[in-house]
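Notebook, p. 212. Picked up where the previous page left off. The plan for this session was modest: take the two constructs that came back from the sequencing core last week, fold each one, and keep the raw output in the notebook itself so nobody has to go hunting through shared drives later. Recording the first one now, exactly as returned: residue sequence, then the structure token string.
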Amino acid sequence: MAVKPILRMGHPVLRVPAAPYPVSEIDTPEFAALIQDLRDTLVDAGGIGLAAPQIGVSYQVVIVDIPAGPSRYGELSALGFSVFINPKLTPLSTEKQSYWEGCLSVPGLRGLVSRPSVVQIDYLSDESVNQRRTFTGFPATVIQHELDHLTGTLYIDHIEDRSLIAFESEYETFHSASTPPTGI
């Protein structure tokens, strides 16, 4: 299919709640094309997660693909290519974890964000099957970050201490040794 432009912070689509994806349209060529466009765009951008609103499609569809091993995000456990349609998030822990997050829609910046360390996601798969999965650690952060895009929320909205927002170059110089980075 095609690599699509990624909308950047300031574009109004990123601040509007996305509509549920019509279940009757999941098994269509149009849906397959959307998933391929998301995947092509994600690979081209070097990211690990992307939501449909980030390419201008205001539907509740998210893809995630976390490779195992060393990466710019630190040492990772794999979460293979996954599609989440009309997902619902439930925090399962009051314990929080903090990661330096980045976003393909907020290029050049990082910010320290605290989120629940364990979450459950109920969603439809790309085969129209109801699924429930639990995520912990870094994958939990990635999933929450991507699902935020479906509600018109950006990671910067969760930053409690505004002094913990940095350009990537300053993050690398002053913060990366003390806190593991993430870039979603």
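Okay, moving on. Second construct, recorded in the same format:
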Amino acid sequence: MSIQRYLTALNAKSLVLGLFASFSIVTSSISLAQNKQAPYPQRIITVAPHLSEVVESAGGANRLISVSVYSNFPESVKKLPITSDARSIDLEKMKQLRPDLIIYWRGGTPESQIESIKKTFTSIQVVSVEPKKLTDIASDIETIGKLLGTEAIAKKNADTFRAQITELKNQYQNKSKRKVRVFYQVWAQPLMTLNQDHLIADIINICGGEQLFAKEKLLVATVSREAVVKANPEIIFTAVDTQQMKTDWSMWSSIPQLAATQKKAFIDIDGDMISRPSTRIMQGAKRICSEIDRIR
């Protein structure tokens, strides 16, 4: 299973299970399932690919002891044991590793797995992360930094990320009154896209784009090819694996009246740089902004 399909599966499954709750505190999308009085955590397990990246930004990469499948940044995590994937969590292996902090993605971890973790690890901190805006990523970094006692490095990286967001907004968000019609293709068969509550929707808005199907009820929504043609996107994005061949765009490029066809605006984005809510998503955001600006 590719990373893009993995993340899609996580989103789809979590929608069915109703996991997309509101943030539990105002300043961050992190919530503490259990908050025991203890020294700063030294043995961290993460339960989604992007979480090792967030921990790294918070200054805790050297405390990671286990990660999920497809975790590949920072480089050091590739050597760590894997204890979770989109379908399951290896609780026995987790117990053997003796973690003192577990971080999971509330928007992508099935409720049954969350409950199993809480029941198994009753004396340690279990932390959930659910960023829905780019600024939430910065807040999450700072909150994890406080948990780890690494506030200084966490604040530095969070502030750098916030400055990059501000720079993008200043450069692109209000550059033109006319918004570019954008279709973000999550999957081709079935044809799926994202609604306005997804993090990528925040990026499209910052870049001065008008996200088609933003009002869909489901975070990851199935749409028809006919509906997309009628909406007439000027540019279409999709995420791909770095090991994957380029997307077959023929289902769209074969339609001459489509604005995206006329503008030759079918764009592959590295999935690691757009599908993972960590600081690396800024690379994908900059690419989306520049491509939207190019065809404006």
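Notes on construct two before I forget. The domain at 3-169 is CATH 3.40.50.1980 (Rossmann fold).
Flagging for discussion at group meeting.
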